[in-house]
Amino acid sequence: MMEISEPTLIVFYASRIFGYAPYRLERNASGKITRIISSLVMKSYSIALLFTLVVLCTIGLTNDVEATVSLRMKSTTSRIATVFDVNVVVASCLFGVVSGNIGFRQMLDINRRIKEVDDILFIYIGRDKQAKSRAIKLVLTVYALILSILVNIVNNLYWYIPFYTLYVFLMTLEIQFAHTSWGLGTRYRRLNFALNKMFLKEKSFIQASNVGFTTATINEYRKNENVTNALRRDHAAYLHNIYLKNFAYIHESLGKVVVCISSYFGLALLMLLSSCLLHLIVTAYFLILSLMDEADIDPFHITLQCIWLTFHTFRLLLIVEPCNLMSVELESFWQQLLADETQFTAYGICKIDRGILTTLLWTITTYLVILLQFQKIYG
């Protein structure tokens, strides 16, 4: 479920290291990416890495049970909560690796559509110059955060190293999804910008050298006094038709990318959301237990749980916020298209369309219930 392009290769290589992208890139003589190929060697590597994750997880749990000072294995309930906590991390990583191995065709289709969208948007508003910096900032921020937390933990509890190493793998999967969804939201924003410039401002902003037409632009027609107003209107209508077709194709392609990610990589997303939910519950549970234990208050443990609570909240936002960005931009897209919507209304109070049927049905039902109750009471 990842975007693979020149500006965002840092995300691809990070995913490849942690087993989520078992692919290799073919380049031409100039170094440009020409093809993405599924690699048997990288598939074997990702499967071996997954097996290592399971072993590390088992070692971490065993060490915590046998440790003299255990933070999470003090009671039966704590042990059950910890087992679920660990297993959901392993399951999330598992589905991420499986999705990368069996979703190769879907990944190619996603990247083909994204490339077509970028090529069309380039004609209107140029390349996205911030794509590379966004990818670098995302990767460096997330890894710096998780590594700083892990360093503080392992300095005090070294036997937690195997378990918390899984979080690096888990965050790589979240980086992969956040980067892709963030990129889709940005493309919707660029589409809205192009739509705004083209139709809500009364002038064309496309350079003649970038447009694949041999005819002149609308402004050039206005300079030619020999061209009639009818020809100018016909040409303007022709260009607007082309623009609308391009914008509609961009919208359709981005929509299909979203559907493809939701369909073929939905289990991995579900496990990521489930892990966020479970970790927030379990971490809050251990924090409350520490605060309630007045006889043996451990400041280190309390601080640690607060840090993890903040971290898991950040993880949840890392998934939700890019999706919300896309939803906002998509809603803005439709608002621009429907800005001059013509429709029947009852004196502007309500719209007259199919939606009013449901409203009337519920209103009728409500008043019938009220009338029947009065009938029962007063005869």
From TrEMBL:
GO aspect biological process, one term: male courtship behavior
Compartments (UniProt record): Cell membrane
One Pfam family this sequence matches: 7tm_7
Membrane spanning residue stretches: 40-61, 81-104, 135-154, 264-288, 355-374
GO cellular component: axon; dendrite; neuronal cell body; plasma membrane
Membrane topology category: Multi-pass membrane protein
Keywords in alphabetical order: Cell membrane, Membrane, Receptor, Transducer, Transmembrane, Transmembrane helix
UniProt superkingdom: Eukaryota
InterPro entries: 7TM_chemorcpt (IPR013604)
Family classification: Belongs to the insect chemoreceptor superfamily. Gustatory receptor (GR) family.
Function: Gustatory receptor which mediates acceptance or avoidance behavior, depending on its substrates.
Name of the protein described by the UniProt record: Gustatory receptor
The organism of origin for this protein: Pseudolycoriella hygida
Organism placement in taxonomy: Eukaryota, Metazoa, Ecdysozoa, Arthropoda, Hexapoda
Recorded name of the encoding gene: Gr43a_2
